[in-house]
Amino acid sequence: MRQIGFIPDPVDAKKFEDYLYTQGTMVRMDRHNAGYNVWVFDEDKQIFGKQELLQYLENPQSKTYSDAVLIAKNQRIKQEKDDSATPEYKVVFSDQVVQFPRVTFLLAICILAVSVPMLLDDEKKASMVSIFGLAGQGMGLFSNLAFSTQPWRLITPVFLHFGPLHLLFNIMLLVEFGRMIESQRGVVKFFFLF
């Protein structure tokens, strides 16, 4: 907002405000001593406003400015009707409900399923390791033979964790952050991100 000048008479100030309104320029009149300071809202129209103000001050009784009062009044009435005719945006509760985080839920179930062997005794854990091809101590996890015959060994170490609490916190964080990421980025992007 920029000041473009001063108008000493309140009637002239209102008339000039109406004229600029009809020209598509919004102004604000601030009372100052005996008159009004004229401020233009749009800084790009500052030069235009100054030029119009100089012309107005030369001949404030011009028919152009007198006619602008009625035109501005009609434009404001029309604007109020248009504003009232525009329906307000109503927030529907169902729009606010976040869609069920499918991928997050499925990933949490997968983590739980992988954590079940941790609750088993050592003998059953050893059999799980041999069934799923998880490398134990001293077993060549990265041997070429293992990858050629059992390619899942590339990803199964990802599911090894250090204990039930570790898994519990992973699940909690996955549910909290996964829900947000899934709703913002989408199911497919989240699935590949995880």
Give me the count of strands. 3
- What helical percentage do the residues reach? 55-70%
Strand content: 5-15%
Strand order of the largest sheet: 1-3-2
Query: What is the domain tally?
Result: 2
Structural class: mainly alpha
Rg from alpha-carbon coordinates:
37 Å
**Largest pleated sheet:** 3 strands, antiparallel
The parts where pLDDT drops under 50 for at least 5 residues are none
**Number of discrete helical segments:** 9
Descriptors:
2 domains, 9 helices, 194 residues, 58% helix, Alpha-Beta Plaits, mainly alpha
Task: Report on this structure.
- The chain folds into 2 domains: 2-85, 2-Layer Sandwich (Alpha-Beta Plaits); 95-193, no CATH class.
- The chain is built from 9 helices and 3 strands.
- Helix 1 crosses helix 3 (63-85) and helix 8 (164-185) runs antiparallel to helix 9 (187-193).
- Strands 1-3-2 form a 3-stranded antiparallel beta sheet, with helices on one face.
- It is mainly α and 194 residues long.
- Strand 2 and strand 3 form a beta hairpin.
- The longest helix is centred in the middle third of the chain and has 23 residues, at 63-85.
- It is rod-shaped and about 105 Å long.
Brief overview:
It contains nine helices and three strands; from the N terminus they run βαββαααααααα. The chain is mostly helical. α5 runs antiparallel to α8.
Describe the SSE topology:
Blueprint: E1 2-7, H1 10-22, E2 27-32, E3 35-40, H2 46-58, H3 63-85, H4 93-96, H5 102-115, H6 122-132, H7 144-149, H8 164-185, H9 187-193
Antiparallel strand pairs: 1-3, 2-3
Helix pairs in contact: 1-3, 5-8, 8-9
